[in-house]
Amino acid sequence: MSKRTDSNVYTLIFAIVMVIVVGSMLAFFASSLKPNIDENKRIEKQQNILYAMGVNENDESSANFVSTAVAGQEFNKYIKKQLVIEGDNITEDEKAYLIDVKKEQAKAKKGGTRRLPLFVGEKDGNTFYVAPIYGKGLWDAIWGYVSMDENMVVQGAYFDHKGETPGLGANIKQRYFMDDFYGEHLLTEAGVFKGITVAKGNNDPKNEDKTDYEVDAIAGATITGDGVSAMIKNDLALYVPYFKTLKK
Amino acid sequence: MGLLSKKDAALIKDPLFDNNPITIQVLGICSALAITAELKASIVMSISVMFVLGLGNVVISLMRNIIPSKIRIIVQLIVVATLVIIVDLVLKAFAYELSKTLSVFVGLIITNCIIMGRFEAFALGNGPWRSFLDGIGNAVGYGLILIAVGFFRELLGSGTLLGIKVLGDPIEKTGLYAFGYENNGFMLLSPMALIVVGIIIWVQRTKNKALIEEN
User: ipTM, 2 decimals?
Assistant: First the structure.
């Protein structure tokens, strides 16, 4: 017995109607929720930057941002200057934290000059220089914010990811990984940029050696770890000329 | 049970043990391997699947008489993808932090074979209420295995449960580690999930001989 729903015409009409209904439904949701989502993302960036310079609500083992309600206020309080470095040209821009690092990387690849945002924060009399980094992990994008002192010694780091494996690569945003970066040197004594490698078997699981340019890797997350090393090396190296000018 | 008839109750109970989606139907293995390195991820994934499968089964069941059989798989895929994306968008707008935890699972839920399997095998031929029960039952059955695997992998692989160090500190050498115990890093890698699932299947079939297939 052939059913009405078996005919080609019916199938075709059904497919078309379905696509239109589903498409408009998704478009409606996406566009009506976009302002809220964008606002959440903007606040998150401020929270990330504050986290990297040590303004957070961490308890013993978990990473906690300052609450979304006060993020804007805290950001204005602690971040003194937002710089945009473009070659030798350094300008201040209070929207610098909204610069899309991914787009800037793409621009540099096409031969353009990359705009490098740098956030200068002050807390308890210390100055922090926070730089955003962006790279790729195993499945998708990974990014982060690293705060440094004027000698490019890491004062804090925050990492995040789009779709790393839960329990493995996703653990780059866990305290036990991010906290390892604290105090690590990025420059050799001679002032040459060396970066920090996420290394397996660096014989320093407690991370006491801060000048070995290595932190302990996460078991089962080799490719994500390599991605973290790469984005630190590629992106932070670009800030070296600026830090050299601070010394003069 | 007064609320459910015997037949309906079976829809919930069967998938928990004797017709478990992972150990008997061998569906959803991919996500069981991918995300069970931690107990927390297992629990989050179980709850998400329960939500999507329960709701998806109802939607497919309501549409079962109008879906053209030639393109039914595509229709099922679209329904589940739409549901998951709408939920993800709403979470991103109103519960951003929760969505950060869940967004990793979105792709995994859409491609989860249990969901397509239950749509195809059950919801297309049954009413919405029974489909809903079937969805919840299967999701719970799936969740049980996921949580069991996550429990052993996190305990033996990292020495923690839900992130809490239950066996002592491996670096400070306290608790069990003081006696020379070491975490088994291999437990964190996917092959061990397969082996743990295998052991569960073995134990289950030893207990209930009726499950062993003749060949």
Answer: 0.73
